[in-house]
Design brief:
Blueprint (H helix, E strand, L loop, with lengths): L5 H11 L9 E4 L8 E11 L6 E9 L8 E6 L4 E7 L8 E3 L23 E6 L5 E6 L4 H6 L4 E6 L8 E10 L13 H4 L8 E4 L6 E5 L3 E8 L6 E6 L2 E7 L2 E8 L3 E3 L4 E7 L7 E6 L6 E9 L27 E13 L12 E5 L16 E3 L4 E8 L5 E5 L5 E5 L11 E4 L4 E7 L4 E7 L2 H4 L4 E6 L1
Parallel strand pairs: 1-4, 2-5, 4-9, 10-13, 12-20, 21-24, 23-30
Antiparallel strand pairs: 2-3, 5-7, 6-8, 8-9, 10-11, 13-18, 14-17, 14-19, 15-16, 15-18, 19-20, 21-22, 24-28, 25-27, 25-29, 26-28, 29-30
Bound molecules: CU-O-CU linkage (C2O) and copper (II) ion.
The site of CU-O-CU linkage has 10 residues, from β6 and β29.
Length: 466
């Protein structure tokens, strides 16, 4: 078979665009030149999530008035201005954080630190130009455990004109919901679990559906854009019934596609897989979570139509994002120690304290999303290089996420393969890692564990870049 060039893929995908317009969400593509702000409304909605058909009162984002019982997918173009007006239709303050996007600090969505609270009925205008292409997501940064837990999360796809075009593309947002049998939400968390791995949901979904099934082109190459947006669950992803390669992790391309075996992903992380669908119509493929003692199927895919006869070895590498290379010889080292802390009641904070402290960074537990603004964890000089020496001295894994800056993983003691540059590193118990970055984006940049109960019970800090 010939090299799968961009034109062949484009043709294939145009023919299939109608049949495989996928995503289970709404796609809002913004115009390039003068962006009309996307109307992004956070509001209550109903969704059928429970096993017995019971309806649940969830929170959802709607884009330009389209309310779906599925995550809203926002498309942006790399290097092109984007604008959105957040409209708060909730009964409490909220904000939007654009997870993974390296944008100006004032657009980062952290209340008190980077912007005021957006009160019920009010709005906030976000406007920025995404510098990187890839798969990102967005969520509130206010009363986060409750707001995300009840449904506020969506995907961002930043497209690049140079992106290869595949036969189909499928966004998948993976998460659980803490629901009782009647479809009503259970308490957001249990303190005893927050002090361990976090509190799990009871209903597991992809795109807000239990084990959904998608028709995909037989023999075709399909880009799966997967974001794990649960507040707690760690996934070990695997594909059964087809070959797949990893092309990007946390929005950043691998230098060459790597065959997928099992991949650990923590809350907040993303992977772009290219799946080669089986040739014969009707064959199904399963996306699995292989973690733990009871693996489960997350979603399944059924081969449809005559085989397109693609080859997985023709999947091209994606173009890298322009992330600065740190000057290691001149870099300043910053030690960061993650530990459990003596349990005590946290200082109340209006934007969602859970009322407990279980975790600390450099022995200081933060009470919430909004640490004292005069005391950053470290002050960084704009343009200088840094190496974060991070140590996880706990028996739990922690996906540590940094806002506004991407870092290079120089070493990670429990990683078999080092990931490409990223905004989130999943640290295993007792793992040590060295993360290098150029402090090239000024502002106050929060970093925290993305197991939200850990974030909200102490495992939060921020860097001030001036
Ligand atoms: Cu997904 Cu503080 O972020
Ligand atoms: Cu954690």
């Amino acid at each position: 078979m010939t090299r799968l060039d961009r034109r062949v893929l484009l043709k294939g995908s145009a023919a299939l665009a109608g049949a495989f317009a996928l995503g289970g969400g709404l796609a809002a593509t913004r115009s390039l030149a003068q962006p009309t702000p996307l109307q992004l409304k956070a509001a209550p909605a109903k969704a059928q999530l429970g096993p017995d058909g019971a309806m649940s009162d969830i929170l959802t984002y709607s884009a330009d008035g389209i309310v779906a019982d599925a995550p809203a997918i926002i498309r942006m173009q790399r290097g092109q201005p984007f604008a959105a007006r957040l409209i708060n239709g909730l009964s409490e303050p909220t904000t939007v954080h654009w997870h993974g996007l390296r944008i100006p600090n004032a657009m980062d969505g952290v209340p008190e630190l980077t912007q005021p609270y957006v009160y019920p009925g009010d709005g906030f205008d976000y406007a920025f130009t995404p510098p990187d292409a890839g798969t990102f997501w967005y969520h509130p940064h206010c009363n986060t455990l409750s707001q995300m837990g009840h449904g506020l999360a969506g995907m961002i796809i930043v497209e690049d004109p140079a992106d290869p075009v595949f036969d189909a593309e499928l966004p998948l947002l993976l998460r659980d919901w803490r629901l009782g049998k009647d479809g009503a939400f259970l308490s957001d968390f249990k303190p005893r679990d927050a002090a361990k791995g976090g509190t799990y949901g009871t209903v597991r979904t992809a795109n807000w559906k239990r084990e959904p099934s998608y028709a995909l082109p037989a023999g075709g190459l399909v880009r799966l854009r997967i974001a794990t947006v649960d507040v707690t669950r760690l996934y070990t992803l695997g594909i059964e019934g087809a070959e797949a390669v990893i092309v990007a992790l946390d929005s950043n391309p691998l230098p060459l596609p790597v065959a997928l075996d099992r991949l650990d992903l923590g809350p907040g992380q993303r992977v772009d897989l290219v799946l080669r669908m089986p040739d014969s119509e009707g064959t199904t493929v399963a996306l699995k979570n292989l973690r733990g003692s009871s693996p489960f199927t997350i979603a399944s895919f059924t081969a449809t139509g005559a085989s397109l006869k693609r080859s997985i070895s023709d999947v091209p590498a994606l173009a890298p994002n322009p992330i600065a290379m740190p000057d290691l010889s001149a870099a300043t080292r910053i030690p960061l120690l993650l530990s459990a802390t003596a349990e005590h009641a946290a200082t109340p904070s209006i934007c969602g304290s859970l009322g407990y402290t279980f975790w600390a960074i450099n022995r200081i537990p933060w009470p919430g999303d909004t640490p004292d603004p005069i005391a950053p964890t470290a002050e960084l000089t704009l343009g200088k290089s840094y190496i974060l020496e991070i140590t996880n001295r706990t028996p739990h894994a922690h996906p540590i996420h940094l806002h506004g800056l991407s870092f290079h993983v120089l070493s990670a003691s429990k990683h078999e393969r080092l990931p490409p540059p990223t905004d989130t590193i999943l640290l295993q118990p007792d793992e040590q890692a060295e993360l290098a970055l150029v402090a090239d984006n000024p502002g106050d940049w929060v970093f925290h564990c993305h197991i939200i109960e850990h974030q909200k019970t102490g495992m939060t800090g921020y860097f001030r870049v001036t």
